Amino acid sequence: MAITLEWSVKIPDRAIEEKYWLNLKKKVIDAGLCSHCSTCALICPVDGIISADREIDFPDWEEKCVDCSACVRVCPRYDYTPLCDIGEYIELTAARSKRFKGQDGAMATEFMASALEMGLIDRALFVGRDEEWRTNIYHIRSVDQLKDTRLTGTKYSFASVLPEIKKAMKTSKLGIGVVGTPCMVSGIRKLQSEFSLFREKIKLVCGLFCTENFYHHQLYEFLKEKGVDFSKLIKTDITKGKFIATMTDSVVSFPVKELNDIIPHGCEVCIDFTAVESDFSVGSVGSNVGYSTVVVRGEVAKDVLDFIRENNYADFGKVIPEVIEKLSNLKKKRKKNIPEEFRSRIQEEVKPEESKESKESREKESEKEKTEKPKEQEGTKEG
Amino acid sequence: MIKIKFPKLKTLDNVKLHLDALVVGAKEAIKPGTITIEYPRERRLLPDSFRGYVLFSPENCISCFQCSFVCPANAIGMKLAANNRYYPTIDYTKCIFCHFCVDSCPGAALRPTKVHDVVYKNMNEMITSTEEMVKPPKIVREDGYTVEYVIDGVKLILRRIKEKDNLIPEFKPHEKVKEYSACVMPESCLACGICVSSCPSEAINLSVKEKEKELKIDKERCTGCGICVKECPVQILSLVRE
Ligand SMILES: Cc1cc2nc3c(=O)[nH]c(=O)nc-3n(C[C@H](O)[C@H](O)[C@H](O)COP(=O)(O)OP(=O)(O)OC[C@H]3O[C@@H](n4cnc5c(N)ncnc54)[C@H](O)[C@@H]3O)c2cc1C
Ligand code: SF4
Ligand code: SF4
Fold this sequence. Notes:
The structure holds two protein chains of two kinds. Chain A is of the alpha/beta class. Chain A has two domains: about 20-75, 2-Layer Sandwich (Alpha-Beta Plaits), CATH 3.30.70.20; about 90-320, no CATH class. Chain A is about 35% helix and about 20% strand. Chain A has 15 helices and twelve strands. Chain A has an eight-stranded mixed β-sheet, sandwiched between helices. In chain A, strands 7-8-9 form a three-stranded antiparallel β-sheet. The longest helix of chain A has 13 residues, at about 180-195. Chain A is globular. Chain A starts with 5 loop residues before the first strand and ends with a helix. In chain B, about 20% of the residues lie in helices and about 25% in strands. The longest helix of chain B has 20 residues, at about 10-30. Chain B is built from six helices and twelve strands. In chain B, strands 1-7-8 form a three-stranded mixed β-sheet, with no helix packed on it. The interface between A and B is medium-sized, with 25 and 29 residues. One iron/sulfur cluster (SF4) binds next to helix 1 and helix 4 of chain A.
């Protein structure tokens, strides 16, 4: 440990001669690039930046902002390098937890539970919900807590998970596990590259496949008009181009393209479908119904997967990489929305041409329920 | 529940014990005042390190909250004073007279007294404000004698001095290991300057250069109060020993 009485901190250039917060606001939030990942809210030392169910804001910045530049330094969209494709991985598989109920195969939950059991982490941040499906964050400390099905499963609304990392850092001894959308994963990585403090403690980062997320109030209004009774709502899902709200006594479903008008700007400029910077990614597409697609990228996540196998905590199934590729390519079409200065930074994967036979045989394999999904979504998302 | 059994004594022991008691009783009848003292006319001589009522000198307080943090009984509250500083108050319904507060105070602003017999009319009175802590509490003193207990071998002797004891002894703050604040993870510093504004001794300095900010802790000025350590939003400051 370096103990010092004198040190210096590099500060970034300003785009405008104003406080750093205004730089962030102009360049990211007002420019429609903000992903609502909340990394800025996490780092702001005066807790001035508010991440709630509206645009990121700092109402009393004039008085409170200490102009430290931390927000600008950690924002993954300030000096935006859009990422895309499936990225590098150690293992690609499909699995279904035997212990938990989740959105698909509950593997996001299973990984975190196993990491807790292994003693790799002692806190995992999960997104719960209230009666009206507003998101709230829980600090999970034991495997049993995850039996609560309100904590697992997908909530299609922004969740302020990252600011909770600051609190978890104070109570965690072993490490923290975080589950989030690709933008949140990028926020965590930027945070870790700027501030070493967060490198050690954040041990396991799970990225979820994601096409877009929503502001709660907008989705809420929309679903209410569609006749969704939130007191009876038990699951929301986007599958086969349809938004499906399952209630205890009925189901409401409609084409997901109807939601196009309320897709936040920040998602329109995002082309990362699989959270390429995560330790492992979990998604729905690319595996059979009831299974989660799992992309293991880091050694730590690989250890957790081995632990799951050893303890026989999950069933494993087939994964169809083409489907993931298709959806990630579909999301890549959004690059036209990205400002030119950042678009030029995109590095696409160059795939070696596949032989015709292997391609055909794989296509045959993928003629299962879920493979319908991308085709229909393709039609809907472009409309 | 553990029951304590009366020791099994032989008849001879029993007789001896009874005789001893009779002798002590006879002594007290002939020459009274050899065992008990007549409080409040006589006061027992207490050592200067006695842990009684705590006094406070605001001019030495740096508002570091150390006393309120360390108090195991949670008896110390910090109240905002007219000069915009926070000063301690003690709730004597909770105080267990451990004097951790006295020991932890980096400025020796808290000091002990031998006063242990303050009377209150109700519980609210026992919450002692900062102003009340500056002076010793009012107690009615009827004592003219100070009595010292001396043990001479196995004999207990009471020595009486016709003199009032000083209940506010001279306070010699114990020597402290000098501690000062230092940065243990400079590469995680936000350069927010919260430490600078939190420091009551103006020991931390932040200067803005063109491409960087420089932070410097003046070890000589730092009193080791630890406020900056607590305030740093990323907790990268720590108290280190000389
Ligand atoms: C906004 C959003 C959009 C998605 N879009 C797609 C998609 O287009 N295609 C696809 O294949 N998969 C998508 N997913 C992922 C998918 O819905 C499942 O979350 C994923 O397959 C994991 O399933 P599981 O059963 O393993 O997870 P579970 O074991 O059920 O765990 C779900 C995890 O997600 C977390 N979570 C839930 N809501 C949020 C939220 N709003 N923000 C952050 N974390 C949250 C929970 O805390 C929990 O840790 C999306 C997820 C989200 C949150
Ligand atoms: S205090 Fe720092 S992190 Fe917070 S808004 Fe101002 S410049 Fe950004
Ligand atoms: S992208 Fe994230 S870090 Fe940047 S302004 Fe938006 S919420 Fe803050």
